[in-house]
Write a structure and sequence with these properties.
mainly alpha; 17 helices; 2 strands; Hypothetical protein af1432; globular; two-stranded antiparallel sheet
Length: 278
């Protein structure tokens, strides 16, 4: 049986659940100074699972408070809008797209993506790039893997086997089995979901940024390399990708600059991981 073609992937994308409305709102609000926190709270309150995670995070952060945090509005006051948005976005995606089978776990994928997203936010804060957009791009950078697994679990498990036992980079193994990689598949899914251009570009460019010249693609590529170097996602076959000197130079980043933020990145990632349960 041949794997599904790249052209057929939009059809397979229909088999995935649509993005939760709260995620759609958050992504539309990226970079929008007029975004309304009351509207965000309304969307959050429509999803009991997200409310539960917000309250757990707020009560953990406010462990010294006399009263427990009992509502999303109270959580907003305690955690702040940026942290709220991070928790909502990550938890909505992780628990909505939680496919798993022998040899494949979406939870492992999301844990790695959370590591890349954490690196992307910290590096964005140092380079003047929108941190929320950077975090979202990092969180979504590998969604092409989810689409490829959905389109053909058998072929994607063959990819993982090749990746793990032949010491082959994942995107190289994907090209050998499917004829394309998760960057291309992710671009198709992100376009189908009508995500912002910067996110689409980051997904497409994160393994070969020099071919695209995308600022967000460069940032997510560097964040991917850094996340692997710190082993944030604890991947079964962790391989540090080759870091693009061009991407680093375009962002004004260097390894000494990375090293200054290692402890901060690891602390933020551990906090997110505990809060989200991944």
């Amino acid at each position: 049986m041949t794997p599904p073609s790249l052209a057929s992937l939009p059809t397979h994308a229909e088999a995935l659940p649509s993005l939760p409305e709260v995620v759609n709102y958050l992504i539309r609000a990226l970079g929008d100074d007029s975004a309304n926190l009351d509207t965000l709270a309304h969307h959050i309150n429509s999803d009991p699972a997200i409310v539960a995670r917000l309250l757990a995070a707020a009560n953990s952060a406010g462990s010294g408070l006399a009263k427990r945090v009992a509502s999303a509005s109270q959580a907003f006051l305690l955690l702040g809008a940026d942290r709220i948005a991070t928790i909502v976005l990550a938890s909505a995606l992780i628990y909505r797209y939680d496919a798993h089978a022998s040899g494949f776990s979406a939870r492992v994928l999301w844990r790695h993506s959370l590591g890349v997203a954490t690196c992307a936010r910290v590096l964005a804060e140092q380079t003047g790039i929108d941190p929320d957009l950077a975090f979202t791009s990092g969180l979504l950078h590998d969604i092409g893997q989810l689409l490829m697994y959905t389109a053909s679990p058998t072929h994607f498990l063959a990819v993982l086997d090749r990746h793990q036992h032949e010491d082959t980079p994942l995107f190289v193994a994907e090209r050998a089995v499917f004829g394309y990689d998760h960057c291309e598949a992710g671009r198709i899914l992100a376009t189908t979901w009508k995500l912002p251009t910067d996110i689409v570009d980051a997904i497409a460019a994160h393994h070969e940024p020099d071919e695209f010249g995308s600022e967000m693609g460069n940032l997510v590529h560097v964040s991917e390399c850094l996340s692997h170097a710190l082993d944030l996602g604890e991947l079964p076959s962790n391989q540090v990708p080759v870091l693009s000197d061009i991407a680093c130079a375009s962002l004004g980043l260097s390894w000494p600059k990375f090293a200054a933020h290692f402890a901060e990145i690891e602390a933020r990632f551990d906090d997110f991981r505990v809060t989200l349960g991944v």
